[in-house]
């Protein structure tokens, strides 16, 4: 029987975390341990969860350390050969794990992920292409996929395919491969850490493989968009993480052009939209302090 260690980073996502844990405990034919790393939710709810889910290993951080560092803390406590990094706002259909592991056990040197359906039962396309000059915005990404024969509609009809990167909301990796990569890069507080780990993986010939069957549910953003302040901070973090990614993976004039292009497009949007949007005004204020 396959054994999996499941690492979940939580920040005040108690309702969805409960649903997630229940769905994991309902899985058959896979032995698992669950490790929940709480990023200082700082409420008493965790005591209720510790009592209800006594089989879960709970790690409580004294501050919000971000996604990457919390994942590394969780992974340092695993005991099985496989590690699944899973968001708390996911739900796992029955037999999902066993179906996935039948496939994954046959393939080496690979990071795995699966289709994720949103609350409307629609594919959220939890994968993508690496950030570069041809994928800076949605329009460019669309034409890049079109010219390379990798449109979302085409990929969704395949049994499996190898995207550049897969989402960290459901990322399965062998522990030895995780260790070879040195884990998640903690320079990324949140966002783009999944693109980064897949980029580093491909540089040492660890592939990515995405399955359209099995699948899971992902109710995206229930932690990062739970209130106005958190939503603003999350959107600012996306921009900061893009710049960190560029400065890590590109050098010289290429990095400068990419960074300038991103900041220019962000500022144009925010300046034009700020008079009509409180959200845009607050994002602009924070970006100016970067």
Overview of the structural elements:
The chain is an alpha/beta fold and 290 residues long. The chain is built from eleven helices and eleven strands. The protein has helices spanning 14-25, 45-52, 67-75, 96-104, 138-147, 152-155, 175-181, 193-203, 228-249, 252-273, 278-287, and strands at 2-10, 30-38, 57-60, 82-86, 90-91, 110-117, 127-128, 160-161, 165-166, 170-174, 207-218. The strands form three sheets. The protein has a five-stranded mixed β-sheet. Strands 5, 6, 8 and 11 form a four-stranded mixed β-sheet that branches. α2 (45-52) links the parallel β2 and β3. α9 (228-249) runs antiparallel to α10, α9 packs across α11 and α10 (252-273) runs antiparallel to α11. The longest helix is centred in the C-terminal third of the chain and has 22 residues, at 228-249. The N and C termini lie far apart (49 Å).
Features:
21% strand, four-stranded mixed β-sheet, 290 residues, alpha/beta
Secondary-structure blueprint:
Blueprint: E1 2-10, H1 14-25, E2 30-38, H2 45-52, E3 57-60, H3 67-75, E4 82-86, E5 90-91, H4 96-104, E6 110-117, E7 127-128, H5 138-147, H6 152-155, E8 160-161, E9 165-166, E10 170-174, H7 175-181, H8 193-203, E11 207-218, H9 228-249, H10 252-273, H11 278-287
Parallel strand pairs: 1-2, 1-4, 2-3, 6-11
Antiparallel strand pairs: 4-10, 5-11, 7-9, 8-11
Determine Rg (CA atoms, Å).
19 Å
Head-to-tail CA distance between termini: 49 Å
Contiguous runs where pLDDT drops below 50 for at least 5 residues: none
What order do the SSEs take from the amino end to the carboxyl end, as H and E?
EHEHEHEEHEEHHEEEHHEHHH
Helix percent reads: 40-55%
Sheet/helix structural class: alpha/beta
* Count of beta strands: 11
How many helices does DSSP assign? 11
Approximate strand percentage: 15-25%
- Spatial strand sequence of the major β-sheet: 3-2-1-4-10
Mean pLDDT across the residues is: 93
């Amino acid at each position: 029987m396959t054994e999996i260690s499941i690492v979940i980073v939580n920040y005040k996502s108690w309702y969805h975390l409960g649903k997630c844990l229940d769905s994991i405990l309902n899985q058959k034919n896979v032995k698992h341990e669950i490790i929940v790393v709480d990023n200082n939710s700082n409420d008493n709810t965790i005591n209720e969860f510790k009592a209800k889910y006594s089989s879960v290993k709970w790690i409580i951080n004294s501050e919000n350390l971000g996604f990457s560092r919390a994942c590394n803390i969780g992974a340092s406590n695993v005991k099985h050969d496989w590690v699944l990094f899973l968001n708390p706002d996911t739900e796992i259909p029955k037999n999902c794990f066993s179906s996935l592991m039948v496939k994954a056990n046959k393939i080496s040197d690979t990071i795995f992920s699966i289709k994720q359906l949103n609350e409307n039962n629609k594919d959220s396309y939890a994968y993508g292409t690496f950030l570069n000059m041809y994928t800076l915005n949605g329009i460019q990404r669309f034409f890049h996929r079109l010219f390379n024969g990798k449109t979302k509609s085409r990929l969704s009809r395949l049994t499996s395919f190898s995207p550049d990167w897969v989402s960290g909301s459901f990322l399965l990796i062998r522990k030895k491969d995780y260790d070879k990569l040195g884990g998640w890069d903690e320079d990324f507080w949140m966002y783009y850490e999944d693109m980064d780990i897949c980029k580093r993986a491909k540089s040492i010939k660890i592939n990515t493989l995405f399955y359209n069957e099995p699948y899971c549910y992902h109710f995206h953003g229930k932690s990062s968009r739970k209130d106005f302040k958190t939503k603003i901070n999350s959107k600012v973090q996306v921009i900061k993480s893009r710049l960190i990614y560029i400065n890590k993976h590109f050098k010289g004039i290429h990095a400068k052009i990419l960074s300038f292009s991103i900041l220019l497009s962000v500022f144009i949007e925010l300046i034009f939209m700020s008079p009509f949007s409180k959200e845009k005004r607050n994002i602009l204020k924070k970006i100016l302090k970067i």
